[in-house]
Design a protein that fits this description.
about 400 residues, eleven-stranded mixed beta sheet, 13 helices, about 25% strand, globular
């Protein structure tokens, strides 16, 4: 077993700070004759399979009140939460027993970029350094001296933002990152194909040819086809800074690779006790623990986001339809600069790193870093899901 993962899992950390008070829904892999994914509700007495009522997470989130629907579904108890969480750690997983999957299925996985001033500065530094961590370190002070303080509290698209844009053009420092960071239009991109995200305890991937990469701990919104935000979860928007830094047109290669999108451990549905106000106050904390003894800690506060979650959803769905809903990463203010090796090289992942992302109302998402080609290949796509649900007799109510 990889020593970066504990042999036992703390349910206190896995669950939100208020324990089972929220409406928590997830997906698990059910073993057996008709093995396949099942939608489940996490309750104090165990994990209950409600796939007989809701064949997919997408269908649950399309109901008028997903939280009420999840609570009303009796389901069938599968196992205790402790058993399923422990079995979800891939290094100790018994595939003959249930384990957690990413909590989304038919939803498109989208991501917002450059939504915090801190991350905007780092994107500028990457661009100036052409993806080279040493050159980027040299540009840091120069970039900060010109734009750092001016970004504090700046509302994208405002008159003040446009004045700053004019100043930066005059100084020859305009870039595509500033355009989406302070301009009227948000950066939104497709993070992963449908069903490609990995879940709690799985390997998360980095490209073998990357020399500068990092995790991006984020809150992820669950949005249905009517553009209603119905819940939230956590995500790791793994980024290859050397690739994106060479050119923003390489964003797809920097962001969308095997196992580079982690989501989970569950979706907390909006109800009387949890909603968008709590999302706006969320503090996302992350710890990376390496087999070499290296520890990196960071945090991201949604209170400092430059674009409100409602605006990001509106911009994403403003000229597009998502009939099965979407998951939307909100971006992060976390961009590590701590040196892991030689001075000026900054932080980059090592194989075996344990990444823990935790938030008060959303629990903890844990993954272990592997090269993309060494993580389990993505083979279970939409066709496989539909065939599987049909074989299990779960399509009688439709998707």
């Amino acid at each position: 077993m990889n020593p970066s993962f504990p042999s036992s899992v703390s349910l206190e950390r896995f669950l939100p700070s208020d324990g089972y008070a929220g409406t928590l829904v997830a997906r698990i892999w059910q073993p057996g004759v008709h093995a396949g994914p099942s939608v489940v509700v996490i309750r104090e007495d165990g994990v209950h399979d409600i796939s007989g009522t809701f064949a997919t997470m997408s269908s649950l989130l399309e109901t008028e009140s997903p939280a009420d629907s999840a609570r009303a579904a009796a389901g069938v108890k599968v196992a205790s939460l402790a058993e399923i969480v422990a079995n979800s750690i891939v290094a100790q997983r018994d595939t003959s027993k249930p384990f957690l999957l990413a909590p989304c299925d038919l939803q498109v996985v989208k991501a917002s970029g450059v939504t915090f001033a801190e991350s905007l500065v780092e994107r500028l530094i990457e661009e100036h350094g052409a993806g080279d961590p040493v050159l980027s370190a040299r540009f840091r002070d120069q970039v900060l001296s010109v734009v750092g303080a001016k970004l504090e509290g700046l509302k994208p698209g405002s008159d003040e933002a446009m004045k700053l844009k004019a100043l930066l053009v005059e100084k020859g420092m305009w870039s595509q990152y500033l355009e989406v960071g302070i301009g009227p239009d948000a950066e939104v991109f497709t993070k992963a194909p449908v069903l490609a995200a990995v879940g709690y305890g799985d390997h998360v991937g980095i490209r073998e040819d990357s020399v500068w990469n990092n995790p991006e701990p984020e809150v992820v919104l669950a949005v249905n086809s009517r553009a209603r935000i119905v819940g939230a979860t956590l995500g790791n928007d793994v980024n290859h800074r050397d690739i994106e830094g060479r050119s923003a047109l390489l964003l797809g290669k920097a962001k969308d690779n095997n196992a580079t999108c982690s989501i989970g451990p569950f979706i907390r549905l909006f109800d009387a006790h949890y909603g968008l106000d709590q999302v706006r106050q969320e503090q996302v904390r992350m710890t990376v623990t390496g087999l070499d003894g290296f520890v990196l800690e960071g945090s991201s506060s949604l209170e400092k986001i430059s674009r409100d979650p409602l605006e990001l959803v509106a911009q994403t769905m403003g000229s597009h339809q998502y009939p099965d809903g979407m998951l939307l990463f909100l971006g992060t203010m976390f961009a590590p600069t701590q040196n892991r090796g030689p001075e000026g090289k900054g932080f980059t992942h090592h194989v075996g790193d344990r990444v823990s992302i935790r938030a008060k109302w959303l629990g903890e998402l844990v993954n272990e870093v592997r090269h993309c080609n060494d993580a389990a290949p993505w083979t279970f796509g939409v066709r496989a899901l539909v065939n599987n649900l049909a074989a299990r007799g779960l399509l009688r109510h439709g998707l």
